[in-house]
Amino acid sequence: MTIMHRYLLPLLILLAGSLAGCATTGRAPAGQATADPRTMTFAPLRFEVPKTERVRLSNGMVVHLLPDRELPVVSITAYVPTGSMYEPADKVGLAGLTGAIMRSGGTRELTPAALDAELEFMASAVEASVGSDVGNVSLSCLKRNLPRTLELFAQVMMNPAFREERVTLAKNRTIEALRRQNDDSKEIADREFQKALYPGHPLGRVPTIETVKAITRDDLVAFHRTFYRPENIIIAAAGDFEKKELVALLENAFAGWKPEETTVPALPPDPAKEVKPAVLLARKEVNQSAIRMGHLGIDKNNPDLYAIRVMDYILGGGFTSRLTTEVRSNQGLAYNVHAAFDVGRRYIGTFEAETETKSESTGKAIGLMRSIIAGMTKEPVSDQELNLAKDAIVNSFIFGFARTDAVANQRARLEYYGYPPGYLENYRDNIARVTKVDVLRVARKYLHPDGMVIVVVGDDKKFDRPLTEFGAVDEIKLENGTEKGGK
């Protein structure tokens, strides 16, 4: 039985039982008053955040274990301290290629074809990837195939072959994708917005044909050897297993993989804390404009995190948000509009408001969105907005624990990113304590409607208003396959 079922099933049974007596006649029994659903009250649903068992293997790897016997399957994910933020500026794309070829290039023991065939025969999966601040290697399999699948998982993590032909194939595919990188307006807007907020920083870099061509197999081998080390890895394991048995399997699979004496490279320095407001236009002959606007935000250690979460929901977090109500429902300018702080885990994050609208309403949409954002800083939100936001956040909290693999991975991520003890346990109470005064205070402190970077991708000949109304316009020149990119 899943975690969600354990908490919701008893509640559903209780509700069904209470309604059963009235199901036949539709009336309350004689002599008993009819219940008014508008005045009915219920005791708060108690929910304790599930915990994992944390163990450390002999080589230093940390494992978060959470058994679940509902289905005969097992899932495991490893979190490796690496990422594209460690790439050299002249070889951007190295991290992503490393993650992809770790799996596609086979291992020292198995060719790519042999690895694929064995995993397919067992209906197992092993995947690898590297993002901006984490590397992942994962497996999923039937319980009976766990020992062998875990061996293959360990081979991919410890001994990827990086075969030259697979390196060439992956580079060619990446280069071809770069040649098509400007086909999608939304992808352009997202990319250029990120570059504008993190100028000169690894978080703002994107691969180019030039940087990908410069990457060699030796670079991939060195990148892997530098960061894939057992003492720095955290593993999340969930599914149908005995704890002692799985620990023994992990010890055996990673036997001989010892900690390194050399140190892992330090994190790159923090990005600039201030970004100048700007209006950036990427001209593209399309019927719809992609709009991104915002500025730098906060990191995970900010004490105002919970008030900002509530403000996010009211401003642009759901169908009842101010942006959705006005931009979509009342004005009909866009199908989708959203705004939120993307809280940084290693570095300061961003605040971003986004939408897509027809070319002829581009200026109106930008002005309206900026006005709504500014409105958050001028007066307190209503009681209804506050209560709806807090209830939505608190009530949706439980759905983050619907599956045991989600719970195990969440616990592993919290440790990986250094969240404080009790973060999950105290989250709902911290949200519930947020007041209208708090929301107004954080809006005034962290929202800067006159200091935003505005990125627009579209056909400015069709715009209803010139973008110069929002500031001096700098053009982003789009060249598919460009070797240097940028503005």
List the helices and strands and how they pair.
Elements: H1 3-20, E1 53-56, E2 62-67, E3 73-80, H2 94-104, H3 112-122, E4 125-130, E5 135-142, H4 146-158, H5 164-179, H6 185-197, H7 209-213, H8 217-227, E6 234-239, H9 243-253, E7 278-283, E8 288-296, H10 305-316, H11 322-330, E9 337-342, E10 350-358, H12 362-375, H13 383-396, H14 404-416, H15 423-432, H16 436-446, E11 453-458, E12 473-475
Parallel strand pairs: 2-6, 7-11, 7-12
Antiparallel strand pairs: 1-2, 3-5, 3-6, 4-5, 8-10, 8-11, 9-10
Helix pairs in contact: 2-5, 2-8, 10-13, 10-16, 11-12, 13-15
Shape: globular
What is the mean predicted local confidence, pLDDT?
A: 91
The H/E string reads: HEEEHHEEHHHHHEHEEHHEEHHHHHEE
Main structural class: alpha+beta
Distinct helical segment count: 16
CATH fold-level topology of the largest domain: Cytochrome Bc1 Complex, Chain A, domain 1
**In this structure, how is the largest beta sheet organized?**
6 strands, mixed
